[in-house]
User: Fold this.
Amino acid sequence: MKVVIVEDEIAASENLIYLLNEIDPTIEVLKTLDSVKSSVAYFSEMQEADLIFMDIHLADGISFEIFEQVTITTPIIFTTAYDQYAIQAFKVNSVNYLLKPLNKEEISEAINQFVSAKQPSGSTLNNIEALMQMLDTKSANYKSTYLVQKRDELLPLKTKDIAYFFIDSSIVKAITFNNQSYIINKKLEDIETELDPKLFLRVNRQFILNKDSVIKIKYYFNGKLIVITQPPYQERIVVSKAKSNEVKSWMNS
Assistant:
């Protein structure tokens, strides 16, 4: 089987390649792409893959923008940390929708379903209903509490009380709405996968924001944004031009 991977995180694409090799060493990865622009260029010329694994949030936009510029007939398995695009995914040749973090069993099952059916089984309505059931189950697994240390005590910190997470000198900290600071002994990348994406978004390499903490967004130069939060952060929280549309869409949802 020949596959193409569309994923802007190098670690995520490497992990997917590793899992695919574990599942079936004969799977050939033809190409890895990290942006809307490179995907449009590639799929305009090449349509030889049997299957595409596609993330939704790419380096320069949302992957659905690809389909506005080029026709893709190859079946697609979406791999993403966000569940709000599930219905939209089924409108663009999707045969499955896997929520990150990915695991070997789910990928294997998705491939087996694709190989055995070659088409989504049942009606579109049935597929969507089954998908939404799966997403409801996944949503229940979003982290609701972090156990944090305060002096000689361990305290349960509710995620709904956290205004934002950020990296401070390689240490991940959580700031609550009442402006208390706690150290979280995890990587920001791991925390990102544990949170409900409807409520939390990683707006840059340093910050994950709770939507309720955002009180204002300002336009910055070259298409960038500055996010103003409560509690305030002492420096500017800058959103890149590539990430700005995603942040605005998230705030508007």
Summary: Residues 96 and 110 are 7 Å apart (CA to CA). The first helix runs from residue 10 to 23.
